[in-house]
Amino acid sequence: MSFVNKSASELSAMLASKEISSVEITQAQLDNIDRLNPKINSYLTVTHEIALAQAKEVDELRAKGEKLSALAGVPIAVKDNLTTIGIETTAGSKILKGWIPPYNATVVQKILANRMPILGKTNMDEFAMGSSTENSAYGPSLNPWDLKRTPGGSGGGSSSAVASMQAAIAIGSDTGGSIRFPAAVTGTVGVKPTYGAVSRYGLIALGSSLDQIGPVARNVMDAAMLQDAISGPDAMDATSLPESLGSMTEAAKNDSVKGLKIGIIKELTGEGFQAGVSERFQEALDLLVASGAEIVEVSCPSFQYAIAAYYLIQPAEASSNLARFDSVRFGLRVMPEGAATVEKVMAATREEGFGPEVKRRIILGTYALSSGYYDAYYGSAQKVRTLIQADLAKAFEKANVLVSPTAPTTAFLLGEKQEDPLAMYLNDIATIPANLAGVPGMSLPVGLAKEDNLPVGAQFLAPAREDARLYKVGAVLEKLLENKWSKKMMDFAPELRVN
Amino acid sequence: MAKDQLMDYQKALETYEVVIGLEVHVELNTNTKMFCGCANVFGDEPNTNVCPNCLGFPGAMPAVNGKAIENSIKIGLALDCEIAATGRFARKNYFYPDLAKNFQTSQYDEPIAFEGKIDIEVPSGKVFTVEIERAHMEEDAGKLTHVGGSTGRIQGAEFSLVDFNRAGVPLVEIVTKPIYGAGDEAPELAAAYVRSIREIVKNLGVSDARMERGNVRCDANVSIRPKGQEKLGTRTETKNVNSLRSIERAVKYEIQRQAQLLSQGTAIIQETRHWHEDRGATSSGRPKSDADDYRYFPEPDLVPVQPSKEWIEQLRATLPEKPAIRRKRLQELWGFSDLEFRDVVNSDLLDEIDDTVKAGAKPQAARKWWTGEVARIANSEDKDITELAITPSQVAQIAELVESGKLTDRLAREVLTGVLAGEGDPAEIVAKRGLEVVSDDGALLEAIDKVLAEQPEVLEKIREGKVQAAGAVIGAVMKAMAGSADAARVRELVIQRATEK
Fold first, then answer.
1. What is the pTM of this model?
2. Which pLDDT tens digit goes with each residue over A49-92?
3. Which of A131, A158, A164, A178 is catalytic?
4. What domains are there in chain A, each with its CATH number?
5. Segment B108-143, tens digit of pLDDT
6. What is the CATH number of domain B441-500?
7. Are B136 and B111 in contact (CB under 8 A)?
8. Domain segments of chain B as ranges
9. Which residue from A408, B259, B269, B486 has the fewest beta carbons nearer than 10 Å?
């Protein structure tokens, strides 16, 4: 049981020195999953046999003296919107219940190549549409810090798994904040890399021009090692970057922020942010300044249109991406009453297979792309995107990285925003601009809000392809905070007494 | 099905002006599909050339086939088009069970090629310049087979099968601008245009260009308006007309049908129509409006195609000659009269004859065989000539056997039958069937003597100088030799014999 609190980098070192075996770690992880998952619902599928077989294999290779990757033998959780050969993949939707993909996502292929045992597939809002996992067709995941609250979404399965020691590291995907917001509210580290840094091949698409796969971890170094393991060009993804962005692991070894210019985004501070969030955020900035960083204020006025633009582009792309779920080739098929025609079968299947939020976005996106409305909606939204990119470019002339709280509040209560989609959408105010602009963003835990003792996250943004800057500043801030607290973020977490 | 009333064609053209527009889909013959590595092959077992991508599985992403882009650019260049410095793919969204993703990856506002033109000669010899609006790249859909019911059409079928082997096969869609002023030659112009497109893509080597396999498919837009009226009439789009003859017939039919409707004050419905080869008629498909909403938007999974100027120029340098120039050259080279040459072009036998001549046949012999016996057989079997199991090189071999006197025309026709029956090459068939001309003078003389002995009066006549009397002897000898003799040689020998004795 003691292994499960170790970070991926610690496990990596212990495996390399043969202090422990991958089978031992994997078994301990699986035991903890069996204990916690029935309550927290982090995993939709737990792959006991597969994980143990992979662990055994990597142990044998290590025994033979084979050269292995840094994360070889460290078990990992994978979000359920990545295709996995032989493992059910549902993207949190009823329409894919029971679907066993015949091919692996590129990222899954890389995980296997790195010989990391796959523990299972993590829960998520249906097709990643949501900020709380409450839109999962298989029930919400719970926040290990307070089981009445959300672990964030859409990647609440991965964040709650990592925060509750059901995995040291996990894969997430981030279209408008689905890695970073869950990280913020569970006290974990989540990174959305530069668009194109990680191949999307095999990621069940939400908004194709926004989606990006990234790491979820309990510390900056673990996230860095995982990003290094999964990134790189891919011929199967035309939008993947042709060049390497360098070693994030090296960047995470940085120990100085002297001279670093940190831009505070004026529009993402102050009003509308929970007091305890603002307080922790300020404290983190003070620590960085005390270590030699310089704070400058930057303005991104177009951010005020980000949510509106996002909720046109993302549903528009989703409406097209989700058209393939028609019962013809895979997944659920519902026969309508009366004489069946293709159209009626498709309609009955989609009626029953999709949840309300998915339907809402399909309708919204279909409307936004309709002829006569395209220019006003999709066209205008794309222009906002250009403005946001321009604002960010200008901001990055003044600062090396930008910073804001990751989310306006700490974890909200399950059910709190479920009846009010707009309130739920507004939650992503700080995370969405990075997706619209394609730049990388990291959410890093900066302590607990005074009023509710729940984790607060700070978000750093860097220019496209400069992911390393996030790891450099993140590693330093993490160390400054741990020194201040004399413990790690997770040491604040309540002990989970669930069975 | 109610039969359409048709106005007399000439009468229709006295009152109305015809405007046509043609959309031709060309299937490229690349080794692999447009957006995945699956084989692009016709006729394989259904659903064997498929992958997560062309089946539209969750998570799959397209990767562009560079060869398909190259071929598309070549087509654009051959049609005198501008090539886009940057061309985007777009999604055309609609639900149909043969469309795996329920959107077609196509091009919308940024086609790879645009603003071209091509000169088309119609059978009368008149030349029209057809303007090309655009040529864009897209992927083909799967193939549906409707089972049950009597017609093989979707109406009345019990169920439908879908073969995704064709899904994702690269297509280039070539769209003309409206074509005005063709008058009563509009149907011929439509067919001649498609013939030229077919010739171009075949000569470029970018498509197998076989219409019967759907490699080249034409949608014909037809509208008419009273002469002198500026506003265009309502158009219909007749889909998937799959032979040149059908294109001509379908366009003519639509002109006559629309003229009849307008003359009786009935409005034309904007719709797609289907061509029925058997009935020689079009029938109503689905209504189509200009506002058909495909919710086009730029394909976010692909980056824009940006062919460099250098690459485009390199491709331009590889282009074969234009059809009009090639035709002129071939006519001069072969020494055909205008009439002979037009007959060849209109019978679609230019390539066959070219290949036959290249294989060693004399041009007139090649022309004679293809437009004569081979065409006659195709016609009697109701087949396209390219469907017959004979190659230009085999025709050249037959022509050569006749030329060298080894076969008579009659024997040659028998060899041709053997080739079509799959018995092998001409030489093998000659050997197997024992068809060679008897060139042994001894055997011929023996037969001649026998006949002359039976008909002494003929011998007399020949001796008196009435050479034409030899005909009866020649006929009898040929009959005795079962046709395997060279009549000219028999004639020589008969006369020689008569004068000897």
1. 0.88
2. 999 999 999 999 999 999 999 999 999 999 999 999 999 999 99
3. A178
4. 8-266+397-496 (3.90.1300.10)
5. 999 999 999 999 989 888 999 999 999 999 999 999
6. 1.10.10.410
7. yes
8. 9-294, 321-433, 441-500
9. B269
